[in-house]
Design brief:
Helix content is about 35%, strand content about 30%. The chain is α/β, with parallel strands linked by helices and about 325 residues long. It has a 6-stranded mixed beta sheet with strand order 6-7-8-3-9-10, sandwiched between helices. The relative contact order is 0.15.
């Protein structure tokens, strides 16, 4: 059963440089108790989609419901069942962690006593007990993000919107937040996640929608999306760049499609139909040609390969998404 539904959403902005079609007939469905990942290049419409669904902006046309509530006709009803965490921690630096969460509770009209009790509960749950009574301005980036995520959970939402929640975090803090999000989903929370980290979508998302030019251009599980662009790749790293030409000829003999060349011509890879036998054949031919290797092996397609195939460029070429708001 889907808890989030969007049908034909459109949103257009007028800017100095012309008209921006942020959403162009976007359709989306998120099953209850799952993590839906939204991937796409800069300006694809990911953040605009989240803003429509969490009632921050209204679409020009189309319909959307969250937990069966229409986002346009009953935004207050939607806000009662959702939590949201944006790209930057929305906390008051001069308040302590506990005071920040209490303030959120008061904004939800929980009352003083319930707000304080919920704040203490979340401080404990997010392993911030030692820092709960310290001003947030002294927190690390990871601690700020945990406080921000805790704030999104004050009203015990069934649905959580996370817009690039781990931007700017170090790897250890990012992994810690991933584990926290996974635990929330195990407890029944539904998560709609936008991210610029493909490994984040691979780790967290049950289902992924790739968005470009304001509509969905590919979707499926991570494995399904990878399968759409072929099987294994054979990858070889040469000792000598001068062997690149002969190596390309050998790889083209056993692969299909274009050969990718990197690292100054020393690293080559190609899609193959059957990884193990193709790797054996490539290594045999390279050996006969007396080409020295630093490394050789097989790789499954990654989400970055999917991203490149469906959008035309790799995700790491993107800057932070810049959409009209």
């Amino acid at each position: 059963m889907s808890i989030i539904e969007a049908d034909g959403l459109t949103k257009t902005y007028s800017t100095r440089s012309g008209t921006v079609h942020a959403l162009a007939g976007l359709d989306l469905s998120v099953p209850e108790g799952s993590v839906k990942g939204l991937l796409g290049p800069n300006g694809a419409g990911k953040t605009t989609t989240v803003k429509v669904l969490n009632t921050l902006i209204k679409p020009d046309s189309g319909t959307a419901t969250v937990d069966g509530i229409d986002v346009a006709s009953d935004p207050q009803g939607v806000r009662r069942v959702i939590g949201a965490s944006g790209q930057y921690a929305a906390v008051d630096e001069n308040l302590t962690g506990l005071e920040n969460l209490e303030m959120v509770g008061r904004l939800y009209h929980l009352g003083r006593r319930k707000s304080r009790a919920r704040a203490k509960e979340l401080i404990e749950a997010f392993d911030l007990s030692a820092a709960g009574n310290r001003p947030v301005k002294g927190f690390s980036g990871g601690m700020r993000r945990r406080i921000d995520l805790a704030g999104a959970l004050v009203n015990r939402p069934r649905i959580l919107f996370l817009d690039e929640p781990t931007t700017g975090l170090d790897p250890a803090s990012r992994l810690g937040l991933w584990e926290t999000i996974s635990d929330l989903v195990k407890g029944g929370t539904t998560v709609l996640l936008t991210t610029q980290y493909l490994e984040e979508a691979d780790y967290l998302a049950d289902h992924i929608s790739v968005i470009d030019s304001g509509h969905v251009i590919a979707e499926g599980t991570a494995d399904e999306l990878k399968a759409q662009i072929g099987g294994h790749r054979v990858v070889v790293t040469l000792v000598n760049e001068s062997d690149s030409g002969v190596s390309r000829e050998i790889l083209s003999r056993h692969g299909s499609g274009e050969i990718n060349v990197g690292d100054g011509g020393r690293k080559l890879d190609v899609v193959v139909d059957h990884g193990p036998s193709a790797l054996q054949a490539v290594l045999s031919d390279l050996g006969e040609a007396q080409i020295a290797l630093h490394d050789a092996g097989m790789q499954r397609p990654t989400l970055d390969d999917v991203f490149l195939t469906v959008t035309g460029h790799r995700a790491e070429d993107n800057e932070d998404e810049k959409e009209a708001s």
